[in-house]
Amino acid sequence: MSAYLWPSHLFAIWHQNQHPVPYIGRLTITIHSAHGLRLSDFLKNDPYIVALVGEQQKRTDAKMMKDDPVWNQDLQFLVFTPQCHVLLWAWDWDKSSGDDFMGEAYFQTTGQPGHDTIETDPIWLDVRQR
Questions:
Q1: pLDDT in tens, the chain (130 residues)
Q2: Going by C-beta distance under 8 Å and a sequence separation of 6 or more, which residues neighbour residue 60?
Q3: CB-based contacts of 88: which residues, under 8 Å, 6+ apart?
Q4: Which of 32, 46, 59, 63 could form a disulfide with 93 if both were Cys (CB 3.0 to 4.6 A apart)?
Q5: pTM assigned to the model
């Protein structure tokens, strides 16, 4: 694979490296579990979760042959504003074909600048189709 960067792109990359945007904190999202995921394969799902915060993307491990997976996995993100939009995608991992989209959920944080740690009670989100 090859790519060509136009001079304007090179300037943008250089400028971003010279003037990085300072982050104000870290956001840790713990993906606990999922229940009642729709069956994507013939027998069982191999689900994983992708979390998107701004332009950052992290994912959990795939749980093989699980319809009610338990991850208990932390995903950490840098935060640039007190309020963050978080998008979660549920996917079914497939070895031989492309992964199958299972659904998505969305929430927004309401962070408070100046606090070191803010812990919240766990929340359940409904996964919906697009």
A1: 445 555 555 666 666 667 677 888 888 999 999 988 877 767 788 999 999 998 899 999 999 988 889 999 999 999 888 888 999 999 999 888 889 999 899 888 876 655 656 667 777 777 777 6
A2: 31, 48, 49, 71, 73, 75
A3: 31, 49, 50, 51, 52, 104, 105, 106, 125, 127
A4: 46
A5: 0.77
